[in-house]
Design goal:
The chain has 264 residues and is α/β, with parallel strands linked by helices. The chain is built from eleven helices and seven strands. The chain has helices at 22-32, 49-53, 68-78, 97-105, 127-135, 138-142, 156-161, 172-183, 198-202, 204-219, 224-235; strands at 9-15, 37-42, 60-63, 83-86, 110-120, 153-155, 185-196.
Length: 264
């Protein structure tokens, strides 16, 4: 359990069609971060994730979106903690994650922080594929502009001061990092968060191109809407949209045990 004088911590996790992984995810977070508030924000899943959450040990379940930025912002504004940790559903935290992130935030001039990444192969993977996966981790060791899969963390007052996650279809994590860096330093934790290598394994060249080229295009002035269209063309599936706010079906902050409003 956290020390009595430690700041309260909220973990915000956006999900979309994660029913197969939710029980393990919630159990992992309860083990790694006992006493933390767990806020899960569903992007209108079609696989029963929303209904499944009712029976899991989450403090708040919300619906928002579509669009990860909108989900993350809705979760942050509903959360009650003094420190916010944003975590992807396929991420796994290291032991001592709470102590590590608080240590980073205690450094002078640091306004936010993030973990390093360690990609794990899904299913059977060749030794070459595993090596390529870990090349993707190099960026997290040196960057001062963390991506969302690194587990960004910061104090609530800083999040509110920079306007929170923008409601845009892509690059919401980079935009928030840019705003934070203008305000102060972004620390890098020594510990690593383990993330799924599934997307890389599905198309190594395509994935590498997207994660390196898209941020450059965005910083060069290409709009997130135009990048979303390109994202759709490259991946062959719809990109997330940001046109809708938090849904009235579960958008208000409330304990998971409350009576949910079902979808029509």
């Amino acid at each position: 359990m956290p020390a009595p004088d430690a700041p309260t911590l909220s973990v915000i996790v956006p999900i979309l069609d994660e029913a197969a992984h939710l029980p393990r995810l919630v159990g992992h977070l309860r083990e790694r971060l006992p006493g933390a508030e767990l806020v899960v924000v569903d992007g209108h899943s079609s696989d029963g994730s929303w209904e499944l959450l009712e029976g899991l040990a989450v403090d708040q379940r919300l619906q928002a979106g579509p669009g990860r930025g909108l989900q993350l912002d809705a979760g942050a504004r509903a959360a009650r903690g003094e420190v916010l940790l944003f975590l992807h559903a396929d991420a796994r935290l290291p032991p001592g994650a709470r102590e590590e992130l608080l240590r980073v935030l205690s450094r002078p001039g640091v306004v936010a922080g993030a973990f390093r990444t360690w990609h794990r192969a899904e299913g059977e993977a060749s030794r070459l594929m595993e090596r390529l996966l870990h090349l993707a981790d190099l960026r997290s060791r040196y960057t001062t502009l963390p991506y969302g899969d690194q587990g960004l963390f910061l104090r609530r007052e800083v999040y509110e001061a920079v306007g929170g996650f923008p409601h845009q279809p892509l690059m919401e994590d980079l935009e928030l990092s840019l705003r934070l860096r203008r305000r102060g330093g972004i620390g890098r934790a020594r510990a690593r968060v383990e993330v799924s290598g599934r997307r890389f394994q599905e198309g190594p060249i395509r994935y590498t191109l997207m994660v390196n080229l898209f941020p450059l295009l965005y910083r060069a002035g290409v709009s997130p809407e135009r990048l979303a269209r390109l994202y759709r063309d490259v991946r062959g599936r719809p990109a997330p949209r940001s046109g809708r706010g938090p849904s009235r079906r579960g958008s208000s902050a409330r304990p998971c045990g409350g009576s949910p409003r079902r979808r029509p």
